[in-house]
Amino acid sequence: MGNGEGEMGIKEVPCLVTLLLQASGVMSKELGCDHFSIFLLRGCSPGGSIERIWWILCS
């Protein structure tokens, strides 16, 4: 249940944050954050820009 493509601690952090935020119910489905969260959980922020876009939209 997880791909070993990004084996960096830095990339694990946004994934964990996304998981925590999703569990807390902070996701705003109106802004499409649900879509971003799924993308982050699957890709775990391939470049870092995706996680920034998500943070801006969902902050």
Kindly describe this structure:
- The chain is mainly alpha-helical and 59 residues long.
- Helices cover 63% and strands 0% of the residues.
- The longest helix is centred in the N-terminal third of the chain and has 16 residues, at 9-24.
Q: Which key phrases capture this entry?
A:
single chain; 59 residues; mainly alpha; 63% helix; 0% strand
Span of the ends, CA to CA: 28 Å
Amount of helix:
55-70%
Radius of gyration: 11 Å
Number of helices: 3
Give the amount of beta strand, in percent: under 5%
The strand count comes to 0
User: Which word captures the global form?
Assistant: flat
Average of pLDDT: 58
Class derived from helix and strand content: mainly alpha
**Low-pLDDT regions:** none
Structure summary:
By secondary structure, the protein is mainly alpha-helical. It has a domain at 33-58. The chain is built from three helices and no strands.
